[in-house]
Amino acid sequence: MEESGNFEILNYPELFILNYRLVPQHIMEKLNEWVERKKTLSNRDDIKNLTKKIRKINSVLNNLNVLLQKSIRQDDTTFVSRTTLESTKYKPQRIVVLRAVLINPLINKDILKKIVSTQNNIALKLMDQFEPILKEAIT
Prior knowledge:
Blueprint: E1 7-9, E2 17-22, H1 25-40, H2 44-75, E3 81-85, E4 95-101, H3 109-138
Antiparallel strand pairs: 1-2, 2-4, 3-4
Helix pairs in contact: 1-2, 2-3
C-alpha cells in the first residue's frame, strides 16, 4: 500500500482491518514536516497557524477520500468501506479513512497488489482534480 507513494497507513492491522487514506506523496511529506515542526514550537501563535494549515489540508484530503471511496464503489472491481477516525496524529481533527478487511481467505499478495493498483489508478485521476486545491492549502 505505502509502496505506491500515495497512501498513508493509519494503523498496522491487529484484527485484519487496515485503515488508510489517499494522501499524494508531496502532500504527505509536507504534512509530516509540519507535524514534526509543530512539536518543536513554543510560540502559541506559531502553533495556531501551523495547526490551521494542517487542518486545512486534512479537510481537503477528507473530501478527496470520500470521493475516492465513492469512485471505488462505482468502479465495482474492489471494495472498501469508509469511516472517520479521531485518534490519529492529527487529533482532535476527524480524519476520513478507507477501511479494508484483510481476512478473506481467497486473497493473496498478487490479488492485493492488483487491488492497490486499481485503487491507485482511480486515485490518480481524482488527484488531478484536487491538485489546485491542495497546492493552495500548502502555501
